[in-house]
From TrEMBL:
InterPro entries in the cross-refs: Na+/solute_symporter_sf
Entry annotated with the keyword Hydrolase: no
Membrane-spanning parts: 40-58, 70-90, 96-117, 129-148, 154-181, 193-213, 225-246
Keywords in alphabetical order: Membrane, Transmembrane, Transmembrane helix
Domain of life, per lineage: Bacteria
Name of the protein: Bile acid:sodium symporter family protein
Length: 306
């Protein structure tokens, strides 16, 4: 079993692509799995925390300070700068502009540390950004909401963020505890086996998240193509700009932060939007899975040019 999981880990990028294909080819399975997304995400977080361990995840004091600064830039400075630019230029708040603002204001997706692992970099900074970014969302979201009258209820988003934070802390805490008391020194083959199990979990999660894509492909292919191009542009554009800036300023290992910059859990905000605003964003959410799950494949040349 360990060897089989290690083999899957070695071909993790193909596993993620298989999940995308499965989400398109099996709409019935995707719809059936959609109610299980919270449990699947929690299991994924548990595996990630177990793989990293509490010591590496906590890091040093300067790591936590750097993480807090990164969260404030990613979730506060960037969306506010984008919204103020729209206001100064007189551009309207179109669905595309709203989607971009929500992405910039959101915390990391739960799979960011896993994508970092698949790219061969330290996943601990990405996990710290996930936990701290979700914890600070109730604070960073308030100024952003002030610029977005399209939103209805800020309390709904804050409640959703707190629920997600509770899931993250419970799943990560359980993973850290099991690693600390059950497998403090993880061998390389066991580490690769955990990576393989994580790839399977990621592939299953993306099938569940793709349930809105197949109907849009059949009924509104032009809209789907537009939102797919927008998803790639926003996700990969944010990663490219972040990586270029961090590398130019000499930051150590800019890859985890760059991955988080483009891969955000903006679905948290959908609970506060009125129904007439959510339809295009639901399609965008499905399209957003493509650049997200193709990050380890398509961004490898940027992050590991050797």
């Amino acid at each position: 079993m360990q060897l089989a999981l290690a083999f899957i880990a070695r071909h993790g990028k193909l596993g993620l692509i298989a999940g995308l294909v499965g989400g398109l080819a099996l709409p019935g399975v995707a719809a059936m799995m959609r109610p299980w997304i919270p449990e699947l995400v929690a299991f994924l977080l548990f595996l990630t925390a177990f793989r990293i361990g509490p010591v590496d995840a906590a890091g040093k004091l300067n790591d936590l300070t750097r993480t807090a600064r990164a969260v404030l830039v990613l979730q506060l400075a960037l969306p506010l700068g984008f919204l103020m630019l729209l206001k100064l230029t007189g551009l309207p708040m179109t669905p595309l502009a709203l989607a971009a603002a929500l992405v910039l204001a959101a915390p990391s997706v739960t799979g960011s540390a896993n994508f970092t692992i698949l790219l061969g970099h330290d996943p601990a900074p990405a996990l710290r950004l996930l936990i701290l970014g979700t914890a600070l969302l109730p604070l960073t979201a308030i100024p952003v909401f002030w610029f977005l009258p399209e939103f209805g209820d800020l309390a709904a988003v804050l409640a959703a963020a707190l629920r997600l934070l509770a899931v993250i802390l419970a799943a990560a805490g359980l993973g850290f505890a099991l690693r600390h008391w059950g497998a403090r020194h993880l061998s390389e083959i066991n580490r690769r086996a955990v990576d393989g199990l994580t790839v399977i979990a990621l592939a299953v999660v993306v099938v569940a998240l793709m349930s809105a894509i197949r109907p849009a492909l059949a009924e509104r292919p032009a809209d789907l193509a537009f939102w797919l191009a927008a998803a790639f542009g926003i996700n990969f554009g944010a990663q490219l700009l972040c990586f270029t800036f961090l590398r130019a300023t000499g930051r150590p290992d800019p890859v985890p932060t760059s991955i988080v910059a483009g891969n955000r859990n903006f679905a948290l905000f959908l609970v506060a939007l009125p129904p007439q605003a959510t339809d295009p964003l639901l399609i965008f959410l499905g399209c957003y899975q493509f650049p997200m799950y193709l990050t380890p494949t398509l961004m490898r040349r940027l992050y590991d040019p050797s």
